[in-house]
Amino acid sequence: MGRHQFDYLCSQGLRPTDKLLDIGCGSLRAGVHLVPFLDANHYFGIDLVPELLQLGYEREICPLGLADRLDRATNLMATADFTIPFPDVLFDVALAQSLFSHLPINHLRLCLYKLRLRMKEGGMFYATFFIAPADLPYDRPFHQPPIGEIETYGWQDPYHYWQRDIDFAVEGLGWKILSVDDWKHPRGQKIARFAAV
Ligand SMILES: C[S@@+](CC[C@H](N)C(=O)[O-])C[C@H]1O[C@@H](n2cnc3c(N)ncnc32)[C@H](O)[C@@H]1O
Question: What angle do CA 97, 101, 107 make, to 5 degrees?
């Protein structure tokens, strides 16, 4: 999935000079591919769990000889409420892979609000979601294609969203939703493209 995220972002025109924020970056699955591509210290990551950041740095970044391209002290931070603790940095690109599949819509609203304050105008936010059919009753689980092995819910983890939930979530927060696309995620998550307007 790390390589898949990297390839997708490249297909969207990611440039080495971009500053990228990986929200819910975990143990740096995407980071190991993004850090060597982006200019030094242009990759930033936040996660709820500080141990994941530390393990990602020690076991992934350092053995690959990438420590001089990612400053552990300044570019990887633990936050619980989508605070972005990187003073004076404005981002070109933000990514949230398999984050909102574990969180309800009020977290998406909070994230969109705080992130918008730290994005460049025209910057892009890519976030993945399980999507439910528009006519699925709210109290029914949904078996996600392509294999249907994952059951998702409107009210508990793993969460699905209706497309109209995402349309609602951006309202008044300075984002435009451009599309929600298939991106060949192995468990059927879709990727939403938000532009900072
Ligand atoms: C399924 S993992 C995905 C990790 C990573 N994006 C990847 O592709 O490997 C979800 C991550 O989101 C983090 N997370 C959950 N709630 C969060 C929050 N409120 N703020 C930041 N990270 C959060 C979890 O700790 C976990 O590392």
Answer: 95
Fold adopted by 98-197: Rossmann fold (3.40.50)
DSSP H helices, 38-162, are: 50-56, 72-75, 105-116
CA distance 29 to 3: 8
Q: Tell which one of 52, 102, 129 to mutate to probe ligand 1, the residue whose CB is within 8 A of the most ligand atoms.
A: 102
Distance of CA 6 to the CA centre of its chain: 12
Task: Kindly give the distance from the C-alpha atom of residue 158 to the centroid of ligand 1, in angstroms, as a whole number.
Answer: 13
Question: H or E stretch including 36?
Answer: helix 31-37
Average pLDDT by consecutive 10-residue portion of the chain (197 residues)? 97 98 98 98 98 98 98 98 96 98 98 98 98 97 86 97 97 98 93 98
Please report where in the chains the tokens 């609000």 appear, as a residue. 113
Contact 63, 56 (CB under 8 A): no
Question: Of the CATH numbers 3.40.50.150, 3.40.228.10, 3.40.190.10, 1.20.120.740, which one belongs to the domain with range 1-78?
Answer: 3.40.50.150
Q: Per-domain residue ranges for the chain? A: 1-78, 98-197
